[in-house]
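Section 3.1: Structural characterization of target chains.
Under the original work plan, the team committed to producing a structural model for every single-chain target entering the pipeline before any wet-lab resources were allocated. The record below documents one such target. The sequence was received from the expression subgroup and is listed exactly as submitted; it comprises 345 residues.
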Amino acid sequence: MSDDVNSPDEQGEELFEHHRIVVDPGQTPLRVDKFIINRVAHLSRNKLQTAAKSGYVRVNGQPVKSNHKVKPEDVVTVELPQPVYEFELLPEPMDLDILYEDDDLLVLNKPMNLVVHPGHGNYTGTLVNGILHHFQNMPSLPNQPEPRPGLVHRLDKDTTGLMVLGKSERALTDLSEQFFERTVNRRYWALVWGDVREDGTVTGHVGRSLRDRRIQQVFEDGREGKHAVTHYRVLKRLGPVTLVECKLETGRTHQIRVHMQHIGHPLFGDPIYGGNVAVKGAPGGKYNAFLRNMFEALPRQALHAKTLGFTHPGTGERKDFESELPEDMAKAIAKWTTYIEASGL
């Protein structure tokens, strides 16, 4: 073993497995630090390299350096001295905007500023906590004494709109297969920067940014990230911004946000992908004041999951749902319309 990789075993140090990843059969040789960073959120490159120097990064049970190349079917683990943070998923009372519910599934309208699932930095107050409270009176599933919320897809914290959850194992499996087979109809309304001249399609692999692990980026060479396709069409042109409808073929993290940014049309108000500054429009006192008011009224990405359609797992019926735009987006579109008409643009 190399002198610059310490072995925790030799130090008698107790380790706890934090991450375990089995390398895909088709994986080309790749540095282990890059491999882990691409697959583990909220883990910085510096922290990972420090862990590797301390012998906490292992491949097939052996400590390795950061530049070690992984190969297909390797078992990659990150083992650290501190135990994994564990939390109990507890039911919490929550006002849920439920549009439809039966024994198999539930369709709801998610508001802004609500994290869907507990995770790093958000262990309470999530949609899952509220769903657990709502499901408390639901009959237990076979061989499962406690009900569990059946997430089959997610929305970002500040994205609003329609979600479907499975309440039975049959429904959960069936809905998951529909999402995987891309037979679910998902359409989003987004207010984006710029004058979108025509309808189109964005195709580009989406994955975690190599510069900032908190965000996603498009990889045109296809060597990183996962295949992603977004179709968009123009609904209304409002001078510096355009209201578009986006139809998802795939469901990658931040897909619409990063795809629209990639083609030069970041979502209005998006603080992560450059939409919360003046991207288009002639700068000036009146316009700048208007934008300040708009950003205050819509302090998030202008994205709403408006349409959701799927086949009911129990009845085989096609179920289609529409959701009204939330108040902040509706007002933003109305204010842009008034501003453009008054400006004569």
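Helices lie at 32-39, 45-53, 127-134, 169-180, 255-262, 285-297, 327-343.
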